[in-house]
């Protein structure tokens, strides 16, 4: 399998996140990517596909904000990472904002996703990593490829960051595939958390169906999204499918959910599959509550591979750094 990794993704070094009423060390550390790289072996660097495929998914105002936010934060005399502290919640009118704190609120979904000096560079090259891994699938020279993206992407919406995500790598790749002629592109999201950004981006579209298995959002982040009755609207009615599982789910509980998800993907008859893969379903994950074991990932990989679709695997979460390489390698070897 072709793997793509770009070292510029390591520039993003979030210091800390606000959670349970206080600051804790940030879980989304640069060593996540390098340990996965060590386990998968060879990888090619990303080729620059420019801003156009990013703008095909994300609001240009948001992209400009991401690119400039940390410099503006520093210019305002602040130290460390830029992070919001006031949010417009809902139904406020669209205002022209000038103060960095206001823009941080406007474009953020939470306070666990800080912007540092290297964040834009890493997010940009994560998106380019996904686009580069897509190319051989579109060109017909590979059936499967792995985009070792960091920071992850599936919580980022068209105009907001959140859940450690800034640019939605999977959505950018799926849209690029559509723009280059793929008829229908399904996204299957197997991260522990609901991929709310991806769902939001394709909510009213039938050409990019979204199927996700995740921890019940009644119990876990992102809380406001990913409930079982969310199914899409307008042309996307029925093209979103959410399968929720309780804390403690192990392979015996995950297997039937995956069978349902696979049946849903097959029902959409896609030409290409984008797989948002998170290894935060692992039993030893420090911030999540499922119970998959390293060997189980090979079974998941084999089940997805049996769909027989050209498949782009995009890295999302997974925070048990010591086991992360083995878990990802197990999944990819299952293919
Ligand atoms: C891509 C992805 O897996 N994002 C996950 C975001 C979940 N954030 C939830 C929040 C908090 C828990 N943070 C605990 C930090 C301990 N150092
Ligand atoms: Zn996750």
UniProtKB/TrEMBL annotation:
Any GO molecular function: histone deacetylase activity
Keywords: Hydrolase, Metal-binding, Zinc
A Pfam family annotated for this UniProt entry: Hist_deacetyl
GO BP: any one term: epigenetic regulation of gene expression
Cofactor (UniProt): Zn(2+)
Cross-referenced CDD domains: HDAC_classII_APAH
Domain Histone deacetylase stretches: 49-333
SUPFAM superfamilies: Arginase/deacetylase
Similarity comment: family membership: Belongs to the histone deacetylase family.
Protein name in the entry: Histone deacetylase domain-containing protein
Naturally occurring in which organism (per UniProt): Sphingomonas sanxanigenens DSM 19645 = NX02
